[in-house]
Amino acid sequence: MTKTNRTPLKSLNLLLIPFAIFGLFQLFTFSFDKEEEENEHQTKLEESYQIFSLSPPKEIKFANEVVPLSEPEVYERLDREIHSNTYFHSNTILYFKKANRWFPVIEPILKQNGIPDDFKYLALIESGLDNVVSPTGAAGYWQFMKTTGIEYGLQINGEVDERYHVEKATQAACQYLKDSYELYGDWALVAASYNAGKGRISKELERQKASNYFDLLLVEETGRYVFRILAIKNIFENPKKYGFNIRKADLYPTLEYQTVSIDSSIASFAEFSKQHNISYKILKYFNPWLRESYLKNSQKDSYEVKLPVSKDYELN
Predict the structure, then answer these.
(1) Concatenated DSSP letters of 98-155
(2) pTM greater than 0.90 (yes/no)
(3) Class for domain 63-250, per CATH?
(4) How far is CA 176 from each of CA 14, 136, 138, 182, rounded to the nearest angstrom?
(5) Which among 9, 236, 218, 246 has a CA at the least distance from the CA of 117?
(6) Mean pLDDT of the chain
(7) Distance from C-alpha of 129 to C-alpha of 251, rounded to nearest angstrom
(8) Which residue in 206, 152, 149, 142 sits closest to 175, CA to CA?
C-alpha cells in the first residue's frame, strides 16, 4: 500500500487556527456588545419610562347621585374605565381639545332643559364630539337613530339631517333624557337607557327585580357605559392627577359665526359659498346637517345657515 504524505494538510490546518480564533473573538465581542447595549437600553427604559397604577376617587357622583364605590364590584368597574381612558392618551387628549369648542354650546342647552351638566360627557363618549356614523346607523354627536331622531323632532331626509346639527340634536337629546327620567327617576338608569334603549332597561329591571343601574347585570357595552362617563368626568375634573397637562393654547376654540336665513331652494351650495367668499368645504364644516350640494326645499322650510366671521376661513 502506498504511503500518503499528510504534511501539507497539517500545515493548512495550522494556518487556519489563527483565523478561527479571531472569528471566535469577534463573535464573543459582538455578543458581549449586544448584551451590554440591551442592558443599557433596559436601564434607560426603567429609569425614564414609567407607567403607574391609578387610584379612583374615594367618592364620586353622577348627576348629583352617589355612586356606591364601597361595593368592590362597582369600584373595580370604575377602576377599569379610569385606566382605559387615562392610558388611551391620544384619544383623551382629543376629548379635551374638542370639548373646549363644543361644551360651551351643549352646556346652556342642558341647563335650559333641566338636564344635569354631567350629560355633556355622555355626548363625548357617544361620538368623541365628531359627526360619526355607527355601524347600526346612529349619527351625529348624540348618536341618534333615524327613527328616534324623527320621533324627537329632528328633520331627517335626503337633503337635511339635523342629527348633525349640534344645537337641535342636543335639544332633542334633552327631551329624550327628560322622558326617560319621568320613567325611571334615576339619572344613571337614564344614561343606561340612552345606550340600550328604554325597552331593554325596563325589561332587565323587571327580570332581575332591581331598582338601580349599579345592581343590574347588563351586556358589556351598557354595563361599562355609565362608568365610562364617570371616568371621563373624573379625568376632566382632575387632569393633572392623571398626568394630563393640556395647554390652553392647544385647545380648539369655539367657532365664531353669523347666520343667514334660507326659506327657498338653493341650486348650488358651491355657488352659494362662493358668493359668501368661503369654500364649499367650509360651508359644510360649519353646517354638516346640509347633506347635499343643493337644497330643493319643496316645503319652503326656513333654515339658519352658519357662516364664519373670521377671515381665516375666507377664500384666497
Answers:
(1) HHHHHHHHHHHHHHHTT--GGGHHHHHHHHTTS--B-TTS-BTTTTB-HHHHHHTT--
(2) no
(3) mainly alpha
(4) 92, 19, 15, 10
(5) 236
(6) 91
(7) 14
(8) 152
